[in-house]
Amino acid sequence: xxxxxxxxxxxxxxxxxxxxxxDLNALFGSGLSVPAEVDRAVIDRANRHFVxxxxxxxxxxxxxSAAAAAAVIIFAVVLETQFSGPSEQESKPDQHFSAPLAExxxxxxxxxxxxxxxxxRLATDIDENGRVDILDAFxxxxxxxxxxxxxxxxxxxxxxxVNRDDVDVLAFAAxxxxxxx
Amino acid sequence: xxSDEELIALVNDGDADAFEALYYRYRxxxxxxxxxxxxxHADALDVVQDTFGYLLRKFPGFExxxxxxxxxxxxxxxxxxxxxxxxxxxxxxxxxxxxxxxxAPKETSxxxxxxxxxxxxxxxxxxxxxxxxxxMSLKEIAAALNIPIGxxxxxxxxxxxxxxxxxxxxxxxxx
Lengths: 181, 175
What we know:
The complex is a heterodimer of chains A (181) and B (175). Chain A is mostly helical. Chain A has seven helices and no strands. The termini of chain A are far apart. Chain B is built from eight helices and no strands. Chain B is globular, with a radius of gyration of 18 Å.
């Protein structure tokens, strides 16, 4: 830095009269402004950006529910494998369960037998590809989140409403079905 | 009125209205700067859209470490040069800052100012414009150009000295 520069250490040392800014603006300004179409384009893009991001959050909640359901099922299957013998399993499949586990399995079996069989099973095939799997749960979640038409047949748990609870039940059941139970 | 930092925090939470507020706060500043670099209305509008598109992609997770103008200046500058390169509306690739506009004949003081600016180097002229036209502080200029503040002071000093020494422009600096 030169010696002379050292005399200009503060903003105040570069003070100039307002006319300098005015004349620079006249020289380097276009005299035009940003039209409303550009404003709309930028703001519409921002709105789309935030709507997209906003929709992702609930979607990830469904994924988390499905993953949790899958973890529970895997845990149950591992326990079942550990506590069962081959001959007993073939003849009396439920006798080897401890009471709470048997109770849980019974509830689950009840759901599968009452809800996911026959016509009811077809109702849970949301994407109508002939099988009920985790993708149906995702699809149902998307339908609910996007507030599109909700069909009465998607009331999986039979509480009279089509909502997140149905997605959770479907996700749980779908994972269980995938495991061949 | 909410500060830039408050608006950015809201945008990070997905508030589109806060982004809109930021847009209207800096739209004209971005456009003026873009026009200065491109010298073309259509190109400058492209730069405005690209600049705010770039800013949008920073969310969520954007952290403002300096002022908004410090953040936006290099974005506008680089985007302007990119748009100019793509655009066939500009016939030459010469630096636009070399193109001092010709003011109307009656505007004597502006014509003289333009003439004196013409003898400054690109670097001196750029910091002069940032200081007096964009109203940026020395610190902000240094951060925006990614150069030491001493270099900013040196360039600005040389530019101001040139204007002070010239009888046509010395009046801008009289107390």
